[in-house]
Amino acid sequence: PDLQTVFTTKVAEAAQMSKSQGVDSDITKLKVDELYAEANDLFDLSDRINQFWPITWCCKGVMFLQKFELDGSADSQKTLDRARYYFMAAKKEGDSLPCHLGLGAVNYLDGKYKDSAGNYARAISLFPEESGAPARVALGLACYKLGQIDRAKACFDRAIEMDAGLTEGVVGRAVLDLAESDDTTDEGRARVENAIKMIVTSPLHDNNNAMVKNHLANHFFYVYTAIPGTVALLENSNGTVFKCSQSMDL
After folding, report:
1. Residue from 152, 133, 136 nearest 144 by CA
2. Which of 27, 72, 121, 141 is the most buried (most CB within 10 A)?
3. Contact at 8 Å (CB) between 131 and 121?
4. What mean pLDDT value characterizes the chain?
5. Greater pLDDT, 183 or 116
6. 10 Cβ contact list (under 8 Å, min separation 6)
7. Residue 128 CA to chain centroid, in angstroms?
8. CA–CA dist 30, 197 (Å, integer)
9. Which Gene3D superfamilies does the entry link to (predicted)?
10. Backbone region of residue 229 per phi and psi (left: phi > 0; alpha: psi in -120 to 50; beta: other values)
């Protein structure tokens, strides 16, 4: 357990470093590569202790999966293939939740949405409680990519039932409602209003989630109606004055 904690910490630290911005980006990348190398060395040590321990392979798969998501190099496909290799190796030792979820993520990122949906569905079928709400959201996203909108909605609904505070589930369901709503009818406007309320309340659970703010911005951008007239900010002795060429409620 101590070893697993150490290399999990190394991978997490590498991921955090890779997201850093600034003038020392080259130094940051070197540090990230160094942390990943340390984590991989710890995995190798675990293999030497017990080379048939599937958890090590799953953790290696997670490491390369995360590295793929953060790596924009030409070798990123090789990184994804390495993640798939380790999850497949773990699966050969028997069904486990990490290997099915890992394969689902790999196939999704590789554009193999049908295989991804199958992996997530298998994980939920074998481990209905342990897989939790996030697995339902992942299945919903794969179904959406396949054009199975009703099934995607059902997945998001189930995820919300299991965890009402799961932002990804709430936003996923709301976005599907927004996409299908016709705001020219009373029923359509009610659905739009309800969907926006779902998105607006999401930050109460996760106020740092950029996805929520982005979807809200997109919605209000497309429904924005310009007001005729001109607006100006003028400086005078009393400070800044807001002036408009016509009456406007603020």
Report:
1. 152
2. 141
3. no
4. 76
5. 116
6. 35, 36, 38, 39, 42
7. 21
8. 44
9. Tetratricopeptide repeat domain (1.25.40.10)
10. left
Inter-residue contact 59 to 4 (CB < 8 Å): yes
Taking the C-alpha atoms of residue 25 and residue 18, their distance in angstroms, rounded to an integer, is 9
The amino acid at 141? L
CB 152 within 8 A of CB 180: no
Provide CB contacts within 8 A for 141, sequence distance 6+: 108, 152, 172
Q: Which is more confident, 229 or 9?
A: 9
132 has a pLDDT exceeding 60: yes
Q: 134-178: per-residue pLDDT in tens?
A: 999 999 999 999 999 999 999 999 999 999 888 888 888 888 887
Percent of the chain with pLDDT strictly greater than 90: 32
HSE-CB of 166 using CA atoms within 13 angstroms: 21
Angle between helices 25-49 and 54-70 (to 10 degrees): 170
Is 192 in contact with 179 (CB distance < 8 Å)? no
- What are the structure tokens assigned to 231, written together? 């607006």
Q: What is the largest CA-CA distance in the chain?
A: 78
